[in-house]
Amino acid sequence: MTTTTPLLTLRHLRKSYGERPLFDIEALTICAASAYVLTGLNGAGKSTLLRILAGLETAEVEAAHFLDQPVRLTPYPRAMREAVVYVHQHPIMFSTSVADNIAYGLSARGMTKAEIVRRTEGAMEWAGVTHLRDSRPLTLSGGEKQRVALARAKVLEPKLLLLDEPTSSLDGEAREQVIGLIPTLLESGSSIIMACHDRDLIALPGVQRLKLRDGRLQARQNRMRLA
Ligand SMILES: Nc1ncnc2c1ncn2[C@@H]1O[C@H](COP(=O)(O)OP(=O)(O)OP(=O)(O)O)[C@@H](O)[C@H]1O
Questions:
Q1: Whose CA is nearest to atom 3 of ligand 1?
Q2: pLDDT tens, position by position, 182-227
Q3: Nearest to 123 by CA among 90, 98, 92, 160
Q4: Segments in 29-129 forming alpha helices (H)
Q5: Cβ–ligand 1 contact at 46 (below 6 Å)
Q6: d(Cα 10, Cα 29) in Å, to the nearest integer?
Q7: Domain boundaries along the sequence of the chain
Q8: pLDDT, tens digit (0-9, with 9 covering 90-100), for 149-172
Q9: What residue's CA is closest to ligand 1, atom 9?
Q10: Does domain 33-58+74-221 have CATH number 3.30.110.70?
């Protein structure tokens, strides 16, 4: 399902590192339950943009709205902290079990134990990592780790999921497994922005394309629907 209801809108988003301007984005609208790929050459600012949207990096913004409410990005608003989840290209995990890593964010939100177990089991099954439930993240392959990271993000039911190059360190079956999970993320109503160079992710049907080029953002839409 793809909608045209705005989830997040930004006007005039500017980022510089010291004297060096990185980008100046006139307008960005992310719609609810919609998927986007963010492309651009190395160093164009893809990760930086995702990190700004996740509140991990500061930027100047003229106006921002999240779920129709005016917000400021600095300090990062509470409404977005709970609704926006960022998944790093090389996810960092606690050295406890896979199941504990996935459940952690839920306990931090004060959920009941039964609900935590129910959601964690569902997320592990979705990501195909149930058999790894007692494993320590250190022992996982890159693909397994990325799937655990996706399960850990999905379980929080974010409104906006930011994936930073989810397949960049993967190949073969591991990469295909991760690509296969992406369309199903939309079914739970999340919007997704994926920074990537992966042609198969870019070509996923229904995914809208955002391209950072020379400090500007260009938008383009693929024709078919994703879900
Ligand atoms: N903390 C920082 N301080 C100064 N410059 C930075 C910082 N973080 C990123 N940069 C610079 O900003 C530019 C954009 O980096 P960013 O990682 O956002 O690009 P990217 O499009 O994600 O690149 P890639 O495709 O290689 O991952 C790069 O030139 C980088 O060196």
A1: 17
A2: 989 888 889 999 999 999 999 998 899 999 999 999 987 655 444 4
A3: 98
A4: 46-53, 78-83, 98-108, 113-127
A5: yes
A6: 7
A7: 33-58+74-221
A8: 999 999 999 999 999 999 998 999
A9: 48
A10: no
